[in-house]
């Protein structure tokens, strides 16, 4: 059995309460206070997995504050261990929680950008509501994002990508950029790869979509 919420991992997360927030209450509207630079833009990756992407972003862009969000304890603990080993950037914190709780976690307009990377595709239509680009999730993102806030979505899954093009378009977002082969198209040299991206780009193209909340 795959243990995604083991108690040892939870204890380890709790030992690092200064940088890991576990199902927090009372943080809504106050996330900037977690960082040295309180005026910096706030970016979040929802479903960060083992954290390679958000960790490298935090290193590369010290003038932006980052939150890596993941719902499973054991997965988040892997990200934490890696960050501690390599050096936790001051502009990064971790959040153990589920995206369905965004309205309890973030004030309207608190986020500047949301990343969704290689979100679980949930291919069966009876599971469509679990997709992180299902309309009810897009509604939560729209509220948490600033006016004109941005989302960047990457996947190797063509069906999920096509599905998401439609849901973003029909639920209050405007397209800024659509890329059908991220690793072979010019102009994306600054792309930061995720664990899944490194694994699955061998099998076919990586799709990327950038959208903004419709003004
Ligand atoms: N973003 C990483 C990457 O590209 O390598 C991980 C991708 S993995 C397929 C999807 C991750 O999203 C998993 O770690 C999963 O636990 C997390 N996840 C799925 N649904 C979530 C939700 N509702 N809230 C927070 N995290 C979620």
What does this structure look like?
By secondary structure, this protein is α/β, with parallel strands linked by helices. The chain has a single domain, classed as Vaccinia Virus protein VP39 (Rossmann fold). 30% of the residues lie in helices and 24% in strands. It contains seven helices and eight strands; from the N terminus they run αββαβαβαβαβαβαβ. It has helices spanning 7-15, 52-60, 73-86, 102-105, 135-144, 158-170, 195-200, and strands spanning 20-22, 42-46, 65-70, 92-96, 111-117, 145-155, 173-179, 207-213. It has an eight-stranded mixed beta sheet, with helices on both faces. Strand 5 (111-117), helix 5 and strand 6 (145-155) form a beta-alpha-beta unit. Helix 1 packs across helix 3. The mean pLDDT is 97. The structure holds S-adenosylmethionine. The site of S-adenosylmethionine has 20 residues, from strand 3 and helix 7.
List keywords for this structure.
Rossmann fold, alpha/beta, binds S-adenosylmethionine, 215 residues, tRNA_(Gua-N-7)_MeTrfase_Trmb, EC 2.1.1.33, 8 strands, tRNA_methyltr_TrmB_bact, 30% helix, single chain, 7 helices, SAM-dependent_MTases_sf, tRNA (guanine-N(7)-)-methyltransferase, 8-stranded mixed sheet
């Amino acid at each position: 059995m795959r243990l995604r919420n083991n108690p040892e991992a939870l204890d380890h997360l709790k030992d690092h309460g200064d940088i890991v927030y576990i199902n927090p209450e009372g943080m809504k509207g106050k996330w900037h206070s977690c960082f040295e630079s309180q005026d910096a833009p706030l970016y979040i990756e929802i479903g960060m997995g083992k954290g390679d992407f958000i960790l490298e972003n935090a290193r590369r862009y010290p003038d932006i504050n980052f939150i890596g969000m993941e719902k499973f304890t054991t997965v988040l603990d892997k990200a934490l261990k890696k960050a501690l080993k390599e050096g936790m950037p001051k502009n990064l914190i971790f959040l153990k929680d589920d995206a369905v709780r965004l309205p309890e976690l973030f004030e309207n307009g608190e986020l500047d950008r949301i990343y969704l990377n290689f979100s679980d595709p949930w291919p069966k239509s009876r599971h469509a509501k679990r997709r992180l680009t299902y309309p009810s999730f897009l509604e939560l993102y729209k509220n948490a994002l600033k006016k004109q806030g941005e989302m960047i979505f990457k996947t190797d899954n063509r069906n999920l990508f096509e599905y998401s093009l439609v849901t973003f378009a029909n639920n209050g977002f405007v397209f800024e950029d659509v890329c059908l082969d991220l690793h072979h198209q010019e102009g994306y040299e600054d792309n930061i790869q995720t664990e899944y991206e490194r694994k699955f780009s061998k099998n076919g193209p990586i799709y990327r979509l950038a959208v903004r909340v419709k003004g």
